[in-house]
């Protein structure tokens, strides 16, 4: 087994284990030295380093940012640059990211809290100054400009001055929060290890009570053009229109029953990312729902590799796909383009 694959598997295993920590195991100090950080060979490169990518975004200047296990990486259409030190997260794995409406960049780490970069300096938020937990899985800005941070120990809300935090003691369905969305009524939705719940500004409501079934390990969540909530995880994908719940698995046309990421493109199509199974990530890929049918996307159709950990639609309409250490590619509707450091060979999919 290659050293890269070993590093990937160890890093993923540690992250998954950390997500199941109970509140009683909360850290009392920031762990500045991340033992599973994946150091990059060079500060800049002409192609994307082969590193675990957990999320992507495009900023207002057109730069593509990657949350990776080698720290934050920026692609300016010419080169890839690691910005861990500048963002206050040197040698830290980064799991989540956001550009807020004021233009500040937010980066959530696995062990060292969240860092906000205003273009000149970075400000760190950790348990020591109000963040509910130092492992930041998701960062979301609501329509009132509040920043919500989903962590391994609950969720925190930052209003620009103060940090307020919520946990199961306040009605949150589970303290491991993986995804956050806001619907047209202003209600905030949370995808957690223990299911789906919403917050109306006063109290939390468990979706299971409304639809008559439980959920677990919900990893992705979006609102589509009709206002319906989509969410997914180890049990497939679900669509909730406010009254009725629809469920989708491989039987209905998904590429895989595990959904790790979701986006809605400008045409209203819902894209589902599938990491695939461990340890070889086999069976993954992506699925696109055009409103009528599901369309599978794998290496057969041109995808770089059959494990998708994050997706993004850029301002040009290209769909980006990021993987667990095997590279990044984008799709313009006709052609997949690999922008990664090393072209894959058949041996990359083996266990040798």
TrEMBL record:
Q: What Pfam families would the database entry show?
A: Reg_prop (PF07494)
InterPro entries with a match to the protein in the record: Reg_prop, WD40/YVTN_repeat-like_dom_sf
Key word Repressor present: no
Q: Indicate the secretion signal residues.
A: 1-22
Q: Which UniProt keywords apply?
A: Signal
From the record, give the transmembrane residue ranges: none
UniProt-recorded name of the protein? Two component regulator propeller
Query: Which organism was this protein described from?
Result: Saltatorellus ferox
